[in-house]
Write a structure and sequence with these properties.
15% strand; 5-stranded mixed sheet; alpha/beta; 5 strands; 7 helices
Amino acid sequence: MWAFEKTARDNGFVRIAGVDEAGRGPLAGPVVSAAVILPQSLPVSGINDSKQVPPKKREKLYHEIYRYAIAVGVGIVDPLEIDRINILQAALTAMAISVMNLTPRPDFLLIDGQFPVPLKLPQKPIPKGDSLSISIAAASIVAKVTRDRLMERYADEYPEFDFATNKGYPTKAHREAIRRFGTCPIHRRSFKGVCT
């Protein structure tokens, strides 16, 4: 999991940030990105692609990543902007924001996926990077936990959609709630299945 970070260091880079997002697929809520710069020695085990980590373990790792990381940045793009620029551009924008929120600034980026982020920084997109790079995996955990917490807050505002359970994803119950109640302000109206 450290191979990409080691290669970047061997090439002279010092502050290497892993970048990932959560929430490209849901029908509701923001897309959230995180960028994480880890120290070379990390006293934390179990960091992996957030989809492979159970929720309670994700929460624990989230706190440990914040405790030991050199820097953590978060970027959030709301549903209105997602509808305006499309989900891919929104995800890349959220990633760029998360990198800009890092202090100190990174000198190299490891990006989950095949697209570079719109920043003038040396970077390497890595398909399935969240299971191949420790820094990207850490970012995936921070992004996922941050987004899940936001959706749990939205569940209090819009209880009919059960966002605490489905996190905005297109479950059968969520689709049925849209049919029954219509949409709420955090639904992505450009997504198939939201506006009928």
